[in-house]
């Protein structure tokens, strides 16, 4: 048997991860024919077919499943070696791929100038997306998330709490009046966060007997918290958001806090999430430490 080419094994694993040869080629930045040729040569070296090509979707053969397991181990070993070499560099360097929600950009983006000034050898590539990004498949080094961690292949470091606040613009309050009690919100234009068909129209409060919810409604639904803030500043209605997202607007008088005597449960905390690896690259460790320094309260 010929000596196996590790690069071809890695490409084989990448094909399965991407879901198709064309998607793999696009992700690797090469032609589809290059990927197909590398797969064919690997099968020739092994003397066995790894992927059935009779269906539109990829289907692994029995030996293909076994080879994939070993290919993934090689891929992880190469990643560990890369992280290990990065661990012993004099200073953090390289491209740091970061994922963040559209709303979270308001907290994160202002910090990036200071981070890159501290670590001039690091280039930050920021991906803004409200979907739950697959960090490993999309090669993300760090994600800023506000959701519970359910993937055991990931590590989460808490950055900050998210106290909630209810606010509206002075122009809206002049037009619609100031709510005096929680129940008054049902008669106001409440701006709602929505993702797909799910609308977050039940706002949570803390009462003497414990937490309770109130269903509200309004003219606007958006999947971006930052845009909800912009709409509220423009006088479109009332929003309930994490306080850090509107700190500047409240300080400038563009938004006014409502129902100050009503207790609100905190929103989900902010976390730095990254793939669990035996060796953490200096660029990643430096960025997480920086975020903890700047955001932890």
Automatic annotation (TrEMBL):
Name of the protein this chain belongs to: LysR family transcriptional regulator
* DNA-binding as UniProt keyword: yes
InterPro entries this protein is in?
Answer: LysR-type_TF_proteobact-type, LysR_HTH_N, LysR_subst-bd, WH-like_DNA-bd_sf, WH_DNA-bd_sf
**Keyword Isomerase among record annotations:** no
Q: Which GO terms describe its molecular function?
A: DNA-binding transcription factor activity; sequence-specific DNA binding
- One biological process term in Gene Ontology: DNA-templated transcription
Residue ranges occupied by any HTH lysR-type domain in the UniProt entry: 4-61
Q: Which UniProt keywords apply?
A: DNA-binding, Transcription, Transcription regulation
CDD domains in the cross-refs: PBP2_CrgA_like
Instruction: Read off the PROSITE patterns from this record.
Output: HTH_LYSR
């Amino acid at each position: 048997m010929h000596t196996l080419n590790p690069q071809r094994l890695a490409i084989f694993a990448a094909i399965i991860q991407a879901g198709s040869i064309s998607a793999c080629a696009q992700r690797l930045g090469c032609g589809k024919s290059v990927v197909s040729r590398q797969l064919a040569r690997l099968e020739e070296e092994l003397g066995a077919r790894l992927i059935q090509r009779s269906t539109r979707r990829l289907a692994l053969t029995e030996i293909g499943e076994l080879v994939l397991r070993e290919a993934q181990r090689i891929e992880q070993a190469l990643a560990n070696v890369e992280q290990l070499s990065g661990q012993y560099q004099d200073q953090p360097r390289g491209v740091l791929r970061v994922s963040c929600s559209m709303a979270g950009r308001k907290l994160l983006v202002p910090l990036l100038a200071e981070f890159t000034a501290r670590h001039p050898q690091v280039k930050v590539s920021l991906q803004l997306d409200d979907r739950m990004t697959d960090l490993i498949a999309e090669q993300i080094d760090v994600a800023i998330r506000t959701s519970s961690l359910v993937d055991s292949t990931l590590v989460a470091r808490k950055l900050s709490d998210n106290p909630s606040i209810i606010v509206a613009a002075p122009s809206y309050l002049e037009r619609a009046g100031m709510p005096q009690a929680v129940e008054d919100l049902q008669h106001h234009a409440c701006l709602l966060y929505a993702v797909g068909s799910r609308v977050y129209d039940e706002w949570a409060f803390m009462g003497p007997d414990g937490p309770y919810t109130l269903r509200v409604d309004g003219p606007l639904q958006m999947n971006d918290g930052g845009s909800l803030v912009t709409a509220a500043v423009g006088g479109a209605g009332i929003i309930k958001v994490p306080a850090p997202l509107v700190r500047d607007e409240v300080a400038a008088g563009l938004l006014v806090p409502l129902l100050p005597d009503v207790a609100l449960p905190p929103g989900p905390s902010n976390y730095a999430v990254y793939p669990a690896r035996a060796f953490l690259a200096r660029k990643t460790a430096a960025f997480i430490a920086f975020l903890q320094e700047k955001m932890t309260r």
